[in-house]
Amino acid sequence: MGQDYQATILTPPECERHSARIWFSSLRQAIETAFANLCESFGLHFPRAHTTWGLFTRISAKIAAYDLGILINRHCDRPDLAFQTFIL
């Protein structure tokens, strides 16, 4: 198949592919956890925006609130994702 496009495909050795797969798996898990928390705690599934810029603004505000919540939790020696027990 590589001959059809006259391209050479280079792949890393098997040991490097395995370590890359483990690294990507850990990164994916962190992203999925953050996304699940944004959906559950901050209502990311239903942003209720009317324009594209409104959508960008609302998503940015939710991500900023998420980051601020983690920062406050770390400052107060609480678990990072303890958003439900905030008392403001």
Account of the protein in words:
The chain is mainly alpha-helical. It has one domain. The protein is 65% helix and 0% strand. It is flat, with a radius of gyration of 20 Å. The termini are far apart. The model has no long low-confidence stretch (mean pLDDT 84).
Top keywords for this entry?
mainly alpha; 88 residues; single chain
Q: What is the helix fraction of residues, given as a range?
A: 55-70%
Global structural class: mainly alpha
> What is the general shape?
flat
**Roughly what fraction of the amino acids lie in strands?**
under 5%
A few lines on this structure:
The chain has one domain (11-75). Helices cover 65% and strands 0% of the residues.
Strand and helix map with partners:
Blueprint: H1 2-5, H2 14-42, H3 52-75
